[in-house]
Specification:
Blueprint lengths: L5 H15 L5 H8 L24 H19 L15 H7 L14 E2 L1 H11 L1 H4 L34 H11 L10 H14 L9 E2 L57 H9 L5 H16 L12 H8 L3 H10 L1 E2 L4 E2 L10 H16 L3
Antiparallel strand pairs: 1-2, 3-4
Length: 369
């Protein structure tokens, strides 16, 4: 119990000193507890026993010394305001690792530069798998290019028609992209990719050099489409009496009815299997699941994933047996070449859907299911 809190440690130290010392030694105890107001204790000689050790049995000596040291450490150095006894102040290097936001006026941008011409091959290597070669978006991945008006019932937002500042684009690419390896791009690579995305939206020329000085001057078409919300922040008042009966509260609608939010991972295993069993598996299912869950890595060969169409790479893996390949795809696998997340990270997929995708990739690579 003496080790639970600093206050208890100090109190225990006082009681132990009082109980184990044959003569009154309050000044010694005070020196341990309140060094700021007592005379400094003389240095101990190598042969001199600690005051708390006199009259103590050998089995207690180590414990008593621990208590004495802890009591001195607990009060020997006053705590700084806001310090709770654990953790360390963040170093400038640690703060710099988090302080990476870019303001609309360009404050925070690092030195660097890039042109759309330089960014095009980088974009095709690191971005096109999800966002399309021309920024048109693959599957349900975000579309980046386009100037369609935002006046429809369900407008399709792009960098060109929605984002108000070019700095937002630089910040997001630097902070979160590529999706599978965020913050892996150098500053120059970010400038080059951002320049290419701006070029896809007809905002700069192909040979324009984007850099730290001029990025904030790029005028985005929707720069005037945002405003500061003048409404005050409102907090719900806590209901302490005569509150609504929770049994009378009903959820009348939620967005899962739109079919765009995966919810299968909230279900228990039996209902998940029932849902998976209800999916119709046909010839097109494997290709659809591949495009949805597998193409991001197995298209360009990211994270050691065998590229679809590389017969040798797939043949060597098929030697383990088709069942092993399916098992790794469903459950996940850490191999020498890289990591395979369970179901490609699409946990809502049924096992048979993942198997269909494996069959599709094998058929496209080695001509067999």
């Amino acid at each position: 119990m003496c080790r639970l809190t600093d206050s208890l440690i100090v109190l225990c130290a006082i009681f132990v000193v009082a109980g184990c010392t044959p003569e009154p030694s309050a000044p010694l105890a005070l020196r341990a507890v309140s060094p700021a107001v007592a005379d400094p204790a003389p240095a101990k000689s190598a042969a001199a026993p600690s005051p708390t050790r006199i009259g103590s049995s050998a089995k207690h000596i180590g414990v008593l010394d621990d208590i004495e040291e802890l009591s001195i450490a607990a009060v020997g150095e006053p705590r700084k305001p806001g310090y709770y006894g654990y953790g360390e102040p963040a170093s400038p290097e640690q703060i710099a690792g988090w302080d990476i936001d870019i303001r609309p006026d360009g404050l925070g941008l690092p030195p660097g530069s890039g042109t759309p011409e330089q960014g095009e091959p980088l974009y095709e290597e690191k971005c096109a798998t999800c966002h399309g070669v021309f920024g048109e978006g693959e599957g349900r991945w975000p579309k980046l290019a386009g100037d369609e008006p935002l006046t429809g019932a369900r407008p399709e937002k792009t960098v060109g028609n929605y984002w108000p500042y070019a700095s937002t684009l630089w910040d997001y690419v630097h902070r979160a992209m590529p999706f599978y390896e965020p913050q892996s791009l150098t500053d120059d690579e970010v400038y080059k990719i951002v320049a290419y995305v701006l070029y896809l939206n007809d905002l700069i020329e192909y040979d324009f050099e984007l850099n730290q000085q001029n990025l904030a001057t790029v005028e985005m078409p929707n720069r005037d489409g945002f405003f500061v919300d003048p409404r005050p922040d409102v907090e719900n008042a806590l209901c302490m009496e005569a509150c609504k009966d929770p049994a009378d509260i009903r959820i009348t609608w939620d967005s899962t009815e739109l079919g765009v939010t995966p919810v299968d991972h909230f279900k228990d295993e039996s209902s998940r299997q029932e849902t998976a069993g209800a999916v119709t598996i046909d010839a097109a299912t494997g290709q659809r699941i591949y495009q949805q869950a597998c193409q991001t890595c197995h298209g360009p060969g990211l994270a050691g994933a065998p590229v679809v169409g590389d017969g040798a790479a797939w043949a060597s893996r098929l030697e383990q047996g088709r069942d092993v390949l399916v098992k790794h795809a469903v459950e996940g696998y850490q191999g020498e070449a890289g990591y395979m997340p369970a179901k490609g990270g699409q946990v809502q997929l049924g096992d048979d859907e993942v198997e269909a995708a494996v069959s599709y990739m094998l058929e496209q690579s080695v001509g067999t299911e």
